[in-house]
Amino acid sequence: MRAFILLLALSIVSLSWLNSAEARPGGGHSSSGHHSSSSHSSSSHGSFSHGSYSSHGSSSHSSRPMSNEELVIFLIIVIVFILIKMMEKRRNADSSLASMPTPVIRARRQDQVKQQLALLKQSDPNFSGILFLDFVHSLYSKFYSYSTHPEFRYLSPFLGADLQRHFDRAGPWTITEVVINGIKWQEINAEDPDSETICLVIDANYTLDLQGQRTRYAVTERWQFERKKGLLSPEPEKMQSLCCPHCGAPAQFTDAGLCEHCARVIHQGDRQWYLARRAVLETTALAAADAVSYAEEQGTHLETIKQADLPEQMLRFQQQHGLSDWEDFWRPFVDDVVRAYFISIYSAWSHRDWQGARHLLSDRLFEANLFWQQLYAEQNWFNRLDDLNIGLAEVVKIELDPFYEAITVRIFASCYDYTEDAGGKLIGGSKRSLRRYSEYWTFVRRIGAEKSSTPYSINQCPQCGAPADNIGQTAVCGYCGAKISTGEFSWVLFLMMQDEAYEG
Amino acid sequence: MRKKSTTEFQTRLWEAVNAIEQDSRVEVVVVIRPRSEHYRDIALLWGIVAAWLSFTYLMFAPELFEDWLIYDAPLFAFVVGYLIANIPCLTRLSIPQARLRRNVEIIARALFQKGGIQHTRAKTGVLIYCSWLEKMVYILPDRGAEMALPAEEWQTLRAGLQSVFSGGKPRERLLEQLHQARPLFNRYLPPVARDMNELPDNVEIDL
Question: Is the ipTM of this structure higher than 0.90?
């Protein structure tokens, strides 16, 4: 196609020249006065045209140059041709399709997940989506980091029989830097009389060290968890880390599932969820350059996805906090939490000081992005977000469970987003093109978290009020020793999702 | 409007595939593409022949033609010939059946590999690939699925799916055929409890 356009462009240039140049003497026509057969004339003179022209007898005739109208007609033909080809290309792209879930299907699936989740919560009032995701995160990290090590047996109560032997034949490799980027609820089945299952899709990446060679992989996996019907979820402390569901000691089990601490045998699904099945859907080896690939914003103009019963949940939230008006909560929340966190977190990101935002982030979110920060540091790159402006922030979802309250907000913002190296050389993005985008941020807080009467300050430890300059990587305040990333004392950012990926 | 109807069809297609998967262990992926090759050589050939014919006419016709027309007419004829060659039935008629079949098979096998359909544990992935221009359906079962159904059943299935192009409304007929295939897969690959979909929802179909 490109070659053809080039050829046409060349033709147009030639025509323009033809248009401006005088016609060649004879106009390339035959000057023959023959009325004989064309073939004869053609062979005699090697000219273009014949016949009636020569009957005029003007052997010195110059043909009329191409008029402007004719040139326009020619150009129109060319443009129409190019347009038709472009439309055809676009139509071809549009008409390629596969049996994939459409937005209608995805919305329907989300509704089903919500209904099933409600059913699950009816039978298990202790169930908390936030705690469950923490549990999944812990298991996923350990599943890979222990994979080929003897410690893998510690996971025996949390893995199905097949999965306990999953890495038996694996090579002598080690997996490190396990980072979960996103977890999506795909299916919950609480209708089976004997068991309950939860199916999730996990986007993650990890580094595989094989014979001294390190490769970073991005993976998408589907994990299906199962447990016996009618169980009550353990308390938060037993969900936030892998531990014995009976005594709460850190998970150290024999192959048979015997807790080395309390000597109880823990069978899969008896007291806690276990991974029954898993499928790797996609695996891609990553390069450092993948960290700075800039794609066009896809979802900024998409309609905001709001929880179906949002007004009811807002009312419930108000009642739970004794508020007469939603605005009494919402305005300070937007100013002191949403905007303040947004600016602080992106400032820490931009200055490659991720630790500076440690007290504002959940463990999972901190770890997930810490890896990318370290990658930027290794390459000596900076992801700049100049002129960061926050626009509208609107509440889209409120979730309340026995342990946590979660508020999801869609935040619209704009900035000049680019990556440069230490010398100021542009690696990706643009310093001149303003990037407008939106993201869905989920903030969580433990139910009953102490609410200070003084204005909230993000520069202080929410527990002791000391400056937030001595927070360790595990989010423990260096002054008071409190772990502040669990939402126990204040809001923490639990989840950041791109608008095009958010499904409600 | 067109986009809306395509989305509606895709929704129904997903439902049909989902119904098969609920009822059996097979994992079906249906991919529809407008064509399996660009066939630019055919269009170029049509364009060149048209240009040559027009040039021949200008050369030997008894009428007098002006310079610009001698220059323009073959180009114009080329464009017309090139565009006409893109009319699906003409393209199809211009290409030997063996080449059409080969191209459809190549793309089907490429989609099977790129879509990762071979990554089911029991090898029960099945790709149903429809190529609109060639009017061909290619079914590519993985080893497990292929062995689970007798060859005659596969032949019947293939014939049924190929028939979607024999009348009008091929999309509707494709959905019908998928519904008809449901009991067949159920008979030979019955579902197991808590079976999990092992293929990604969004199959990579860009080649």
Answer: no
